[in-house]
Design brief:
Length: 120
Amino acid sequence: MCMDYVKAFLIGGAICAAVQILMDNTKLMPGRIMVILVCLGAVLGAVGIYEPFTKWAGAGASVPLSGFGNTLFKGIKKAVDEDGFIGIFKGGFTASAVGISGALIFSYLASWIFSPKMKD
C-alpha cells in the first residue's frame, strides 16, 4: 500500500518536472502547455496507452492535466457508444462533472478561509 503512494508521487512528480522543463526551455505560455497536456492525455487515451499507464501509476497519472484529457476522452467515447453523435457534446461534461464541481466548491471554501486579496 505504501509503495502505491511512493509510485504515484514519483510518477506525478516526473510529469510535473517534465512540464516545468518544457516551460523553462520554450517560449510556450502556461495556458498553451495546459492545452497540450489535456490533448496529449486524450490522444494517448484514444491510442490505448494512457489506461494501462494509469492502472500502473495510479493517482500519479490520473491527477495531472493529462489524466483530465483521458477522462474527457473516455466520457466522450462512452457517450458516443450510447447516444451516437450527440455524445460528442455531452460525454466530456458527464465524465468530468464531479472533478470540476469539486474543484469549484473547494476553491470557494478556501477563498472564505484564507480571504484572498486582489492585486493592484
